[in-house]
Structure formats: structure tokens, C-alpha cells
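Field log, afternoon session.

UNIT: design team B
ACTIVITY: writing a sequence onto a fixed backbone
BACKBONE:
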């Protein structure tokens, strides 16, 4: 019997506690969501009762980056977390499975606190050890088109976002050839002014290119079903493999990236 793990990322545009009727039918095991309120605030109470565990970072209590687990999965912030990179949240997921998850929200640079960076290239270089310490997933709203994700900065000898992720053994789930079908490619995830005719690709999930995590599904739903709730639509990946059983850890994480 195959084991399954489902991860959902969705920029909910605030008020996730009022949109659970849309999120929960996706049956996430792990959810990563920008635009959610801080744990402990009044609007987070609905989330607390719906999820098993959660973590949150941000500089606006009503609009930060949250990671949630459901069922018997738990999370904790990795020791490598640095507030030098705004809205990048590294967490260890443990329980039935063990994996590292880096939640990403490349927010408007004008809103980032002084002394902090939202640069994904710098953040991915910093978190590379975290991403190679265990099977890892990077998911979120990069606010970058595919050509920007693959482009090196002008005058820089460094790497593009896609190159850095590849060096950590990760690839865009939208480009993975899934058994029984071809790679999807360029599923639009953000709709300017919530207009179906103005769709762009700015949200991504990067998954292991090999190993025990075999991607069995990648889905981006019909935007018409979601644009009343946000200008973004969710992305969902599902892994299944008998080898996932090798990653089971019932007693919590025992690894550190530092």
C-alpha cells in the first residue's frame, strides 16, 4: 500500500480563518500560506482548531507567513532561522514523515524592515545546508516570473534562483514528468485584479529531484473557483511511495542544519 503526503501552498490574501471551507477540502498534510494572521491573535482561533501544529513569522500581525500541519504531523522552527531574511521560514516536519520545508514569501521590498533582505538568491544560499540536510521542499510566492527565476542578476557571477535550488537537489514540481502523464508546465497562479484573463506564474513548489519522495500529483485548480477569495490560486503536490515509510519518525526530529 502506498503512503501519501500532500503539501498545499496558497497566498490567501489575508483572512485564512474565514477561507478554511476552501482550503480543507484539498486535504493538506502540510500547508504553507502567506497573508495569514499571527498565532495567538483573535483571527487565528479558527486555524488553531483546524490544524495540528503551526508556525508563523512576520512584521505585520495581520499579514505574515504561516506553516500549518494536519493529522499527526508536527513542526518546529529550524535552528538555522535568521531574521536577516524577511518572510523565509525553515521548519522541520516530523511524525509520519520527516522532511524540511522552507516557506517563502518574497514580499514587496519597500515593506521589508530595515536591515533585512527579501532576496531569494541570498536566502537560498544561506539556507542551502538546511535544504540538503534532509528531504526538502521549498514552497511559496516568489513574486517572480519564470524567466526571472532563471535569470542571473546583471553583473553578478552568482546563480539564479532555479540554479541554486537545483544545486540543493530540487526542481520545479510544474516541470516534473509524473508517471502516467507528461509534465504540466506554466500553470498560472496569480491573477492581476482577480481577472482570469490576466494570469501569471509567480508561485512555485520545488520538490526533490529523486529519492524516496516520488511526485504522484501536481495540481493547480480552476481560478474561477478561487478568485472570490484571493488573487492567487493554490498549488498542491502529492507524494506517494512505499519508500516514504523509511522516513517515518514518530519521536520528533533528530537532525539540525547547524
Amino acid at each position: 500500500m502506498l503512503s501519501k503526503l500532500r503539501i498545499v501552498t496558497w497566498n490567501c490574501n489575508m483572512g485564512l480563518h474565514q477561507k478554511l471551507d476552501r482550503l480543507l477540502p484539498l486535504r493538506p498534510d502540510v500547508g504553507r500560506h502567506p497573508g495569514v494572521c499571527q498565532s495567538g491573535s483573535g483571527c487565528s482561533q479558527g486555524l488553531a482548531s483546524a490544524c495540528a501544529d503551526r508556525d508563523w513569522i512576520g512584521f505585520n500581525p495581520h499579514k505574515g507567513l504561516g506553516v500549518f500541519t494536519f493529522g499527526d504531523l508536527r513542526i518546529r522552527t529550524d535552528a538555522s532561522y535568521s531574521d536577516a531574511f524577511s518572510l523565509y521560514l525553515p521548519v522541520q516536519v516530523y511524525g509520519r514523515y520527516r522532511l524540511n520545508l522552507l516557506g517563502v514569501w518574497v514580499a514587496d521590498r519597500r515593506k521589508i524592515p530595515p536591515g533585512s533582505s527579501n532576496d531569494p538568491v541570498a536566502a537560498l544560499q544561506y539556507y542551502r545546508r538546511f535544504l540538503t540536510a534532509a528531504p526538502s521542499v521549498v514552497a511559496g510566492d516568489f513574486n517572480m516570473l519564470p524567466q526571472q527565476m532563471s535569470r542571473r542578476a546583471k553583473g553578478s557571477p552568482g546563480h539564479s534562483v532555479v540554479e541554486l535550488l537545483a544545486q540543493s537537489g530540487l526542481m520545479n514540481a510544474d516541470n516534473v514528468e509524473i508517471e502516467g502523464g507528461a509534465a504540466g508546465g506554466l500553470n498560472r497562479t496569480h491573477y492581476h485584479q482577480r481577472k482570469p484573463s490576466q494570469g501569471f506564474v509567480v508561485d512555485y513548489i520545488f520538490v526533490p529531484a529523486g529519492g524516496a519522495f516520488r511526485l504522484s500529483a501536481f495540481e493547480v485548480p480552476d481560478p474561477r473557483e478561487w478568485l472570490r477569495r484571493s488573487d492567487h490560486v493554490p498549488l498542491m503536490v502529492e507524494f506517494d511511495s512505499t519508500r516514504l515509510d523509511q522516513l517515518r519518525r514518530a519521536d520528533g526530529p533528530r537532525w539540525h542544519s547547524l
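LOG NOTE: The longest helix spans residues 120-126.
NEXT ACTIVITY: expression trials, pending approval
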